[in-house]
Amino acid sequence: xxxxxxxxxxxxxxxxxxxxxxxxxxxxxxxxxxxxxxxxxxxxxxxxxxxxxxxxxxxxxxxxxxxxxxxxxxxxxxxxxxxxxxxxxxxxxxxxxxxxxxxxxxxxxxxxxxxxxxxxxxxxxx
Length: 126
Fold this sequence. Notes:
Low-confidence stretches: none
Strand content: over 45%
Shape: globular
Largest sheet: 7 strands, mixed
Order of helices and strands: EEEEEEEEEHEE
Oligomer: single chain
Helix content: under 10%
Mean pLDDT: 95
Radius of gyration: 13 Å
């Protein structure tokens, strides 16, 4: 079992930066791939970024590539999402996700796995 708690959301002007954190409980954190998804009002959940269990491999949605960076610290049971050059269209609730799915399976299943945080709101003003 893994419990996830996100933090770091807030209101920022376009062009600004935020860093989201997701703290995980449980001794198996380093066994799971970790990722971030987002959901804007009236829209479906959207994949943002993922990092492998070891931290060696990452991949991103095209919409955030070059602007967002995902990282993890297995010693601290924490995954991060550094968001730079934020745009109004990045406004959404951001959710941390943990599981064993990767790439094509994430696309098919819509998640890395069954463990989700409660979400943190990011609002980018123009």
